[in-house]
Design brief:
Blueprint lengths: L8 H10 L7 E4 L2 H10 L3 E5 L6 H7 L3 E3 L2 H12 L1
Parallel strand pairs: 1-2, 2-3
Helix pairs in contact: 2-3
Length: about 80
């Protein structure tokens, strides 16, 4: 890989390997660079999760579509996209 997040190169490679289209992809991350990579790639949903390496302030600054405080909070967000 040539570029690191927030560049979307790694995300593009992962999605291609999984054969997932951008319109059906979500980026979930614990740092602002994760959210910025998802936005740069053009995924349909970005979710910041407040436990991990980043801070809630950093996540908020990246402007994810949603912020979750636990993994169980993510499930309804993903299922809502299916409806």
């Amino acid at each position: 890989m040539t570029h690191h997040k927030p560049h979307p190169e790694g995300l593009f490679k992962a999605l291609a390997g999984l054969e997932v289209e951008l319109e059906r992809a979500a980026m979930i991350g614990d740092a602002g660079v994760d959210i910025l990579a998802g936005k740069a790639a053009g995924v349909s949903l970005t979710i910041g999760i407040t436990h991990g390496f980043g801070t809630q302030q950093e996540l908020e600054a990246a402007k994810p579509d949603h912020i979750a405080h636990s993994i169980p909070e993510i499930i309804p967000l993903l299922l809502a996209r299916q409806a």
